[in-house]
Every structure is written in C-alpha cells, then in structure tokens.
Amino acid sequence: MSKQYEFKASILPYLLVLPQMVIVFVFFFWPAGQAVLQSFYLQDPFGGKMIFVGFQNYSKLLADPDYWQSFSVSTAFAVCITLGAMAISLFLAIQANKKIRFASFYKTMLIWPYAVSTLVAGVIWLFMFNPNVGVIAYVLKHTFHVDWQYLLNFNQAFLLLTLAATWKQLAYNFVFFLAGLQSVPATLIEAAEIDGAKSGTRFWKIIFPLLSPTTFYLLVMNLVYGFFETFPIVHSITQGAPGKSTAILVYKVWRDGVINLDLGSSAAQSVILMLLVIMLTVFQFRFIERRVTY
Amino acid sequence: MFPHIMLWIGIVIILFPIYFIFSASSHTSAEIQAAPMPLNIGPHLIENYRQALFKGTQNMGTPVLTMLKNSLIMALGISVGKIVISLMAAFAIVFFKFPLRNFCFWSIFITLMLPVEVRIMPTYKVVADLGLLNTYAGLILPMIVSATAVFLFRQFFMSIPREIAEASQIDGATPMQFFRYILAPMTRTPIAAMFVIQFIYGWNQYLWPLLITTKPEFYTLLIGINRMMSGADVQIEWQIAMATTLLAMLPPVIVVVLMQKQFIAGMTETEK
C-alpha cells in the first residue's frame, strides 16, 4: 500500500467519512453500547428505574432451558436451510450453465425471485398450508389423510418454516453459483474431457474445488440468513408456536423485548447475537482479504 | 433433455406458490374460506385489486397506494442515501492517507453483515430518544448503517490504477474534481449494481418498520400485509391480502428483471 499514490489533504478525508461515521456511531455503536450497558441492569418497563445486577441477565439466560431450546432450534433451522438451499441451487446452476437452448430464459426465471421478500415468502407458504383455507393443506388432509395442524405439531411447523425459508433463498444462491461456474475456464474442462474424465469426475475433481470460494462464501451467508434474517417467516407463519418451540433466537429477542418488556434479558440476547455476527464477519472478512491479495 | 426437465421443475417450484396467490386474488372471500378454493382465475380480479389499491381491508383501512408510496420512499431513501455516503467514505479510505484511516475503516467494517434483527431493541431506543418514531428519517437512517456498499466501492477503487489519480493531481485537479469528473463516471456500473441490491434490501425491510411505524399513514406494504393477516381466520380477507402481496412483489421484481446484468455483477463483485 505504501508505494501507492495517495492524496494529501488535512480536513477533506474527514469530511468525506463524516456522514458514514455519524451514521455508524449513532445507529450502531451507541445502540450497541446501550445494549451492553442495559444487559447489566434490571429495568422495570414502566418507570425506568434501573438496578445494576452485573452478569445476572446473562447467567439467567444461560441457565434458562428456553434459551438453549431456542438456540438449538435456530441452529437446526439454519443448517437445514443452508444445506437444502445450497444443494438445490447448485444443481440448478449446473443445469443452467450447460450450453442449451433458452439458457438465458431459464436464468431469468430462476433469478428474479431474489426480489421476493422474506415476509412475502412466509405469507405465500402460510396461505398454501393454512389448515383452514390452504390448498396444499386440503390435499394433505383429504388425499393423504395427514393430520395437518402445524400450529400444534412441532415437526410440521419446523418443516413448513424450513420450506418457506429455503424457497426464498434459492435465487440468491443460484446467482452466486452461476457466476462461480461461469468463471471456471472451459479449457480446463475440455482438457479433462479429452483425458477421458467422466462428467462426475469432472465435477468433483475440477469444478467443485474451483467453486470452493463461492461455496464457502455462500455457506457463511446462508447461515447468517438462516440464523438472523428469517424473523419475518417465523413471525408470519408460526409466531413461535407450538408453544415456544419454533421461537428462533431473533424472534425471542423481539418477543422478550417488545411483547414481554424484559429489556435486560433482551439486551443481553442482543449482545450475544451481535458478538456472533461480528465473529462471523471477521472470519469471512479475513478470508476475503486473503483471496484479494492472493 | 435432462437439464431442460430439471430447470422446468425448478421454475415450477418457484412459480407454483405464486400462481396460488394470484388465483386467490381473483376470488371472493367466501370462495376461499369454503376450502378448497378453485384454482382457476376467477372473475373478481379487477374488483379485488381496485379494493386493495384504493380502500384496503376492513380490519386495516390503509389503501395500497399509501403504503406503496411509503415503501418507495423507504427503498429509495435507503438505496440512494447508502450509495452517496458509501462513495464518499470509500473515496476517503482508499485515496487519502490520514491518521484515523484505520480506525474509520474498522469502525465501518465491523457492521458489514450485521442484520438489524440482532440490534433491534437498542436501536429502537436510540431512534425513540431522537424522536424519529413514525418518520421517514427513522425508517431510513438506521438501515443505511451496514458497510456492504462501502465494501463494494472500496474493492472497486482499489482496482483503479493510482497513476490516474497522480496524473490528475499533476494536471492541477483537486481531489474533489478527480472524484467528480474521473472517479464517479468510472464507477457507474458498481453504482447501478449497488442501487439494485439496496433498493431490494430497502423495499423488503420488515422488522424495523414493524417496530417503529405505529401510525397507518407510515405503514409500508409489508407491514400492511401483516396487519391484514392478523386477526381470526374468518376475518381475514384473503383475496385482498393476496392481491396486496402480489402488488408488493412487483416493484422489486421489475427492478431485478430490468437491471439483471448490473444486479448479477454487483452481487458477485461484493464477494470478491
């Protein structure tokens, strides 16, 4: 970096970063600091009397089986979405990357759902599987004689949430896998073909290793999505039901803070989640930086 | 033949659910409640969309047009605001040497992937303290924190040969002239890409508006959908809710389809 030409100015760079820094401090560091502070206090929701309780919010949280239940269901949820969405998207991207007719039509058809919001995905699947009016629910009940009551049955609720969240994530992964596949040099694959490698071998020995940066990136992004960005799906489909069994971590933060007004606990949960995301970010960032310089 | 069949299966998986809601938006409430609803396109299409656009449902009287306006303001505010402040910050970080550069860099980058979901309550408190509940500023500002755009522009700026900056300086241009007349035009493609991504990101925000908009005149479309669907099953006017859902999908889908090329470039460049 030192040999690179750089402008010399004393105030201008500060003026340039100022807006971004103000936003970051007011809407990230300040709230994050408040969350850390609040997580050491007990506050009654109506008066605002604050009592310092040290790590009590954290220890209570970590001793709470509900929290660990929420943690494990979030993990299972994120892993299922990640595996499902990545496998299906990779498969479709491989098909769309072949030299076939209408390839660009197929690509457009599989890319546009990126624009569908997580909430809309939730609402669509809720509508299809609603036990009273849903068409699929009707077929399940009357053709397959399934006792479809996802608000009373954890497995059904989990399955429905996973389907909706996976469906929503397909286009995102498809875009990245397709770009990754297009950057694999065709000459490499032709060479392997001439050497007699079968299509399975070509995929696992050449394409898949070359795709590993994309796969790694998507792995992190899908886990982040599954863990933290699926609130709208849970909020629209199950609202944590049956019981609290599908209340994933971000849903629990929201409910404990907004509905139950347990601000100390909600703050402690926020702090834990932020640490989790920051760890993932740093991890990802180190990886990316390494790839940029080499 | 195999790839065609598989791709069609993929497309059907994607489109089938959307056909369902389109069909639902063309029937009456009674037809949907008397499950199973008919799967054709019924005769009430225009009437349902007219009600959605201009009246809303009975339990939530905000028309789609109002919410469309709010969603548009939020999405444009987030995308344009983020692009402007990110361009400036990335320009400073890449092209200037100043003592606090590393500090600024890391303060910004720590927010790279931080979804609003995890900092929701503390941010709510700050925004409430600033008196920004039920305002467009309150909807927009906390959403332009994350560093994705700074990151993309930084990557792009670092790929530009520094000799260009040096040459402009030798020719007597100020850094801001360099930014305005050389750098900004060169960055047109990444800016377009970022616009698509941030527009969709902004349009699809849900938890944040859910929290800070309590007045119906500030509801965004997604909040409206949520309000239409809350209440007992019998009261839900599914046909209007589904029409609203389809309308809420349209603008971001149009943006993605029209700007597909820039969008893909932007998505995959961020990764590099």
Automatic annotation (TrEMBL), chain A:
In this chain the ABC transmembrane type-1 domain maps to 71-284
UniProt GO cellular component terms: plasma membrane
Q: Would you kindly state one Gene Ontology biological process term found in this protein's UniProt entry?
A: transmembrane transport
Task: State its location(s).
Answer: Cell inner membrane; Cell membrane
Q: What is its main location?
A: membrane
Entry-linked CDD domains: TM_PBP2
Q: Which residues cross the membrane?
A: 12-32, 67-93, 105-128, 206-228, 267-288
Q: Which Pfam families does the record associate with it?
A: BPD_transp_1
InterPro entries membership: MetI-like (IPR000515), MetI-like_sf (IPR035906), UgpAE/MalFG_permease (IPR050809)
The membrane topology of this protein is:
Multi-pass membrane protein
Keyword list (alphabetical) reads: Cell inner membrane, Cell membrane, Membrane, Transmembrane, Transmembrane helix, Transport
The family annotation for this protein states:
Belongs to the binding-protein-dependent transport system permease family.
Provide the assembly information: The complex is composed of two ATP-binding proteins (UgpC), two transmembrane proteins (UgpA and UgpE) and a solute-binding protein (UgpB).
Q: Which protein is depicted?
A: sn-glycerol-3-phosphate transport system permease protein UgpA
**What broad taxonomic lineage does this protein's source fall under?**
Bacteria, Pseudomonadati, Spirochaetota, Spirochaetia, Spirochaetales
The gene it comes from is ugpA
